Structure formats: C-alpha cells, structure tokens
Input
Amino acid sequence: MIYPDENSADELQAIYEASLDVDMEMAEACAVGDRIAAIHKAGGCAHMSAQGYRPNLGDPDLGPGQLRCTASDACQRVFPSQQAWYDAMDQALED
Ligand SMILES: [Zn+2]
Output
C-alpha cells in the first residue's frame, strides 16, 4: 500500500528488505533441517517428535508428564517433562 507521504521507491525498498528477511529465515530453517538429517544419517536422533502421556491411551509405560521420542525407532527415549524434551532437542542440535 502506498500512502500519500511516501513514494513507490520507499514501498519497493520495504518489500525488498522484507524479502531479504524471509530469505534469512528460510536459510536458517534449511540449515536446521540439514543438521537434523545429518544427525539421523549418522545414527543419532534429534528427538524432533514425541508422544506424551495419555491416561488409558497410547504408551502404557509413560507416566504423567512424561514423553517418549517418536522421531526414530532406534531412540524411543523417555523424557521426564516437556522442558526436558525441549532441552534434549536443543542439545542434539548443538552437539
Ligand atoms: Zn529421539
């Protein structure tokens, strides 16, 4: 949208700068995706998905608040809390 107090060059510059921001976000997302793929290719797990405790449903070995990694059949790690799961994801990407 062009307002009376700005010219089309300002608007085009803003659109261009916004597209650069999107490019940066996409590059970061692709880098994370590549990192996750590399971890799995090396036989590790980045724990990017998990199943939480549900009474009388799902995983009978989980207790309240616990989650089990479902990102890899080989992993199946149990986390004591959602925060512990988030911390494990962050740790996997940092290693
Ligand atoms: Zn895992």
